[in-house]
């Protein structure tokens, strides 16, 4: 599904940190959105957490570097890292080329049973509208910073 200038598959959940979550059994596959990767430009390095690391909502868990920018990806939920995408060590550009498939970041086990409560589900028209409004605000905020 296209929202404004970016792609967002409908089979995932999204948060306000520009991270997506896809439920796979009792784990979530986690990655960055098309919005995030386009704002970062060409990603040249990714530092992932080790398996077994605890993630805390609101705290960074991944470092991403582009040609002239270093950013942190924050977790929206509490949980534990099950595994990281080892391919990103040698091929960080997968975050740009395939942010929803080959460029995933980690698999995690959430510690909260209602982890999805804080996410946007694009299959729900009201939540999709809320996410569209959020993205429009983000787009305007970034445009004002570049002036």
Number of domains: 1
- The SS-based structural class is alpha+beta
In quaternary terms, these chains amount to single chain
User: Main β-sheet: number of strands, strand sense, barrel status?
Assistant: 7 strands, antiparallel
CATH topology: OB fold (Dihydrolipoamide Acetyltransferase, E2P)
Roughly how much helix do the residues carry, as a percent range?
10-25%
Note the gap between the termini. 30 Å
Widest sheet: strand ordering: 7-10-11-5-4-3-12
Structure summary, number of beta strands: 12
> Helix-strand pattern, N to C?
EEEEEHEEEEEHHEEH
Mean pLDDT: 93
Q: Based on CA inertia axes, which overall geometry fits?
A: globular
The fraction of residues in strands falls at 25-35%
Q: What is the CATH class designation?
A: Mainly Beta
Number of helical segments with 4 or more residues:
4
Give me the Rg, rounded: 15 Å
Q: Indicate the low-confidence ranges by residue numbers.
A: none
**CATH homologous superfamily identity:** RNA polymerase II/Efflux pump adaptor protein, barrel-sandwich hybrid domain
CATH architecture: Beta Barrel
